[in-house]
Design goal:
Helix content: 40-55%
Structural class: alpha/beta
Distance between the termini: 46 Å
Radius of gyration: 25 Å
Shape: globular
Strand order of the largest sheet: 1-9-8-7-6-2-3
Largest sheet: 7 strands, mixed
Mean pLDDT: 93
Number of helices: 16
Low-confidence stretches: 470-485
């Protein structure tokens, strides 16, 4: 409804009522105008009616929704199912063009605007979360592992002689396979044990750079968010090393946006040394469906280079999901989630420490890990070799998801490389343990129910001498728990 249509409406319905409706409409339009002017996440979240009005306005700007459109090409935004069309708000053309995921589509002005705004709003949120000097970012419709691969492939053109990627060990398959898929040889640098924590071996990293030759190294591939007792890499020192040896530095910040400590490490690393790009997951940080990531960095030209490396058009779903989410939450809503996560981390630590003490175990001291916690399982291991893995099975059948049980001595081969002590980030960590994480969206009830069920499982295993004979799951009517991954 424009001003002319409102004027015409006054001839049908009382003008005072129409003016009131017009004013209400202007309230929605004012919010949309601010978004278009500033390109930033609104301070207060929008109502669903404002979000849907905005998305419908974008959709009518795409050619597949033109009233008189006649499409004779092979890609005309045709959708057989009306349910699918509604699921995507009739934004069917996706984002980008064949040569650049960030390019404007002539016949999809609405989808192109959606893409630009999603990138702009996400950039604003990254700055608010702690990386104040980030220069550019874009949403890519791939999860973290493939997004890292895209970064490595882009660096290949800058360093054609490079064969190796130096990688402080983190036992997570996708980040390892991201290097293999890109065609490079990971050089695994084992962590050093400091107290209970596994930390970056800076001397070993520098030795590898000097031994292999900086020109033969594509980059250092470091990590922030991770499972305890592994803690975030020493980013400031690694960034300084990379700057000293003129070696690129890519950071896997998978679920680090929700942690002010992880974001501070990235900001400081860029300040004192070199970070070329950092990659983070959409689902783990913004509570949207799996399938998207954010590639960000401090050199706008390099981030644009990465976006141009993506072949072809791409799905707009991740951009749409994160834009809807951030417009609905607003800055205040997202900050509230981050604050609650931090509070529940302390609550989870207290509860795990108390439970561990009651069962003769201990909460591992990992103060440098701001998201994940670990509880020893020494007593369980002493009862039976199978007791540790049995605990994992019991928790899963009792609908405790996200908790990880790590036995001693597990070996696993990933893309031809054999890891000893796999999942523990170390060849020989001193004890088996259980992980739990306080990730964004977790509630106190999640923690309370998890601790209750974990306590019951430990008592059952102890009573049965390490092997539970009756491991029946909880009834499906009980609440499902999510602890974070």
């Amino acid at each position: 409804m424009n001003s002319d249509n409102f004027s015409l409406s006054e001839k049908i319905v009382s003008p005072s009522y129409i003016r009131q409706g017009s004013q209400a409409r202007r309230g929605h339009e004012q919010l949309i105008r601010q978004l278009l002017e500033q390109g930033k996440c609104p301070e207060e979240g929008w109502s669903e009616s404002t979000v849907e009005l905005f998305l419908n306005e974008l959709a009518v700007m795409d050619s597949n929704n033109f009233l008189g459109n006649c499409g004779v090409g092979e890609r005309e935004g045709r959708v057989a199912s009306s349910l699918v069309a509604r699921r995507h708000y009739r934004l069917i053309h996706g984002i980008g063009r064949s040569g650049d995921i960030a390019a404007i589509q002539p016949k999809a002005a609405g989808s192109s605007l959606l893409n630009k705004l999603a990138n702009s709003v996400v950039l604003d949120v990254l700055k608010l979360a702690g990386v104040r000097s980030v220069a550019s970012c874009f949403v890519v419709p791939m999860a973290t592992g493939m997004s890292l691969t895209l970064c490595f492939l882009t660096l290949r053109h800058r360093r054609p002689k490079a064969r190796y990627i130096i990688w402080p060990r983190i036992d997570q398959k996708s980040c390892f396979k991201s290097m293999i898929t890109a065609g490079f040889e990971p050089v695994v640098v084992e962590n050093v044990l400091e107290g209970d924590e596994l930390r970056t071996d800076l001397e070993a990293v520098e030795r590898k750079i000097e031994e292999l030759g900086a020109e033969n190294i594509l980059c250092v591939h470091s990590t922030t968010s991770c499972f305890a007792p592994r803690v975030p890499d020493r980013l400031e020192e690694l960034s300084s090393l990379c700057s000293k040896h003129d070696t690129p530095h890519i950071v896997n910040n998978a679920y680090g946006v929700q942690s002010s400590k992880c974001m501070h490490l990235i900001q400081q690393g860029a300040r004192v040394g070199r970070i070329d790009a950092f990659v983070q997951s959409l689902d783990k940080n913004f509570m949207v469906p799996v399938g998207g990531a954010i590639i960000a960095g401090f050199d706008e030209s390099f981030i644009q280079e990465i976006s141009k490396m993506y072949p072809g058009r791409a799905s707009a779903s991740p951009s749409l999901d994160v834009l809807i989410t951030l417009l609905t939450l607003g800055v205040s809503g997202y900050k509230k989630y981050l604050s609650e996560r931090k509070e529940i981390y302390s609550f989870l630590a207290e509860q795990l420490k108390s439970l561990a003490s009651a069962h003769g175990e201990r909460l591992l001291h990992t103060p440098h890990n701001p998201i994940s916690l670990a509880m020893s399982l020494d007593g369980l291991q002493a009862n039976s070799d199978k007791a540790v893995t049995q605990l994992g099975s019991m928790l899963f059948t009792r609908q405790v998801s996200g908790a990880r049980v790590i036995p001693l001595g597990k070996e696993q081969t990933v893309s031809g490389h054999t890891f000893r002590g796999f999942m523990s980030h170390s060849d020989s960590y001193p004890c088996p343990y259980l992980n739990a994480a306080s990730a964004v969206g977790i509630t106190r009830e999640d923690v309370t129910v998890c601790i209750k069920r974990l306590d019951k499982c430990l008592k059952t295993l102890k009573k049965e001498g390490g092997t539970a004979k009756n491991c029946s799951p909880v009834s499906s009517s009980n609440q499902e728990v999510s602890i974070g991954e």
